[in-house]
Design brief:
- This protein is an alpha/beta fold and 457 residues long.
- It has two domains: 316 residues, Rossmann fold; 121 residues, Immunoglobulin-like, CATH 2.60.40.
- Helices cover 16% and strands 40% of the residues.
- The protein contains seven helices and 23 strands.
- Strands 6-5-4-7-8-9 form a six-stranded mixed sheet, with helices on both faces. It has a four-stranded antiparallel sheet with strand order 1-3-14-11.
- Helix 1 runs parallel beside helix 7.
- The longest helix has 22 residues.
């Protein structure tokens, strides 16, 4: 059957700057359907929430699945599933229906799929029961259920005990989940599927991907397990690999801070088999918000299996250090007792002309710890011909931070006084003219570390 499923999961969806989380890769493979005849039951959700494009895309995907199995079992698309394998169709809404028995006719299978209409609630327990009843448990054929659903259970008995019974009888269960309008209980899919959960469950929020998911599963079912497997996972440079937590099969080695290689001699060549690799990752650098965990992931084996892994993102939340330019020193004034007036002489304050105050702030990216930064801010005014006039320059030293990793530094309240007498807008002399300015920022490290004067010898 080749590689039947692949997945990549992260242990949490949100972290703080510098935090760690785990990444898990999962892979499942099984023997060739030609040499190992297999009975497959497609269990298809036709509840009311599937109406419209979801049901149309489901039908296309299921029919493509049947066509690929037809071609792979006997080398040609002759309309008959060959070499002792069979496919059956069960559909369900408020109750489940055995739309076909286990048969070989592609035409009959396609007709059953085309006849599906959407309506009713979602009864997963009856769907599993009707699927199990299709199998001949005395047959030596491998037995597989491919459950597709777009929602949570809304009718019938709890489905988990029925799915558990099927697995105890040696039936392999795959779950394809579509996050439809009624939502999806992914934890339930994990409970129903064969172990490891991550290798037997795939979820999509886009119904246009359903045909691709069914096609990929069918193509991999037709291949003979996998040998000489090599997987290289390269992370986004915002993350660093800490250590390997667990590898259930094969050998894994950390190649560098962002790359890990997983190798297996074989997987699923004698029976359906799953394998997982879990490793710890830390956030580094200054990237924040929703960040993709992966840069890329490469897969190869001797059989040429087509393998795609999920591409998760994680929300990185950082409390940015803030450096604020000092405001002018205030004058303290006290009103004593019941005095309702006070007079205070603040001294001489000179105003040469009317003016405006331009207040700026900047976010200096990826400042490493223990290094001061020199920041220069240059302001010019631009006339209608595009000529620039100097209006001010400020130079300041940004103190070093002591956080364990590089992070952003926000500088606020950088103020420039811009007298109206310097207005170059060529208008009528009003104090309310629109004025145009350009601001340039220059920043560089000053040193590699820092210390107080008392620390110097």
């Amino acid at each position: 059957m080749g590689v039947l499923n692949s997945n990549k999961e992260i242990s949490t969806n949100i972290i703080n700057c510098g935090d760690s989380f785990n990444v898990k890769l999962s892979l499942t493979a099984a023997p060739d359907i030609v040499n190992n005849p297999t009975d497959i039951v497609l269990v298809l959700d036709r509840s009311g929430s599937m109406s419209g494009s979801p049901l149309a895309n489901l039908k296309s995907g299921a029919k493509q699945f049947v066509e690929i199995i037809d071609e792979s079992t006997d080398g040609s698309g002759d309309g008959q599933i060959g070499n002792g394998s069979y496919i059956g169709i069960v559909s369900f809404s408020s109750v489940a229906t055995q739309d076909t028995s286990l048969i070989t006719s592609v035409t009959d299978l396609d007709n059953a799929i085309d006849a599906l209409t959407a309506g009713g609630q979602t009864n997963h327990a009856d769907a599993f029961t009707k699927a199990i009843d299709l199998f001949d448990m005395t047959s030596s054929n491998a037995k597989v259920i491919v459950m597709f659903t777009d929602g949570v259970t809304t009718a019938g008995d709890p489905p988990t005990p029925v799915a558990s019974l099927a697995k105890s009888d040696g039936i392999i269960i795959y779950c394809i989940g579509f996050i439809g309008v009624t939502g999806l209980d992914v934890d339930a899919l994990n409970d129903w599927s064969s172990d490891p959960d991550s290798a037997y469950v795939v979820v999509t929020p886009d119904d246009t991907q359903l045909e691709d998911l069914f096609e990929e599963l069918a193509e991999n079912i037709s291949k003979p397990g996998a040998t000489n497997i090599e997987i290289t996972d390269t992370l986004n440079s915002c993350f660093k690999i800490n250590n390997i937590v667990d590898v259930s099969k094969g050998v894994a080695n950390i190649l560098n801070d962002t790359a890990i290689k997983w190798e297996m001699d074989q997987l699923g060549t004698n029976s359906s088999e799953g394998a997982t690799l879990e490793f710890s990752v830390s956030h580094i650098g200054a990237c924040t918000g929703m960040v993709k965990v992966n840069d890329n992931i490469d897969y190869s084996d001797n059989e040429g299996n087509v393998v795609l892994f999920a591409d998760p993102s994680i929300n990185v939340e950082c409390n940015e250090p803030i450096c604020i330019e000092e405001c002018p020193t205030p004058v303290d004034i006290t009103i004593d007792g019941c005095d309702d007036t006070v007079e205070y002489d603040a001294g001489d304050i000179y105003l040469d002309s009317l003016g405006r105050i331009l207040e700026l702030e900047a976010n200096i990216k990826n400042v490493c710890p223990n290094r001061r930064v020199a920041l220069v801010v240059i302001v010019t005014e631009v006339d209608d011909n595009g000529i620039e006039y100097k209006r001010g320059i400020k130079m300041m030293v940004i103190p070093a931070h002591t956080h364990s990793t590089c992070r952003d530094i926000k500088v606020k309240c950088i103020r420039f006084v811009l007298p109206e007498s310097l207005d170059v807008s060529n208008t009528n002399g009003s104090i309310c003219n629109s004025r145009k300015f350009k601001v340039r920022f220059i920043s560089h490290y000053i040193d590699n570390d820092f210390g107080c004067c008392n620390d110097l010898t």
